[in-house]
Design brief:
- This protein has 65 residues and is an all-alpha fold.
- It has one domain.
- It is built from 5 helices and no strands.
- The relative contact order is 0.19.
Length: 65
């Protein structure tokens, strides 16, 4: 469980900071994560599936900030 929390924290931080990563996730072009140095496919797979699908909530949070 602790590893999942660390993975989620890293995912949300990377998602908030990296516009290219947001674009990849939002457009479901996940194969591009295989060559993304900032956030890789292994990083993405470490995030629990139900949390990875919550990108719309993160996006809403970014608009409020």
């Amino acid at each position: 469980m602790a590893a999942a929390i660390v993975a989620m924290k890293y995912f949300f931080k990377a998602y908030a900071i990296d516009g290219r990563l947001r674009d990849i996730i939002e457009k479901r072009r996940l194969t591009e994560l295989n060559v993304n140095l900032a956030f890789s496919m292994a990083d993405f797979k470490a995030v629990p599936k139900r949390m990875a699908r919550q990108d719309s909530r993160v996006r809403e949070g970014l608009r409020l900030a």
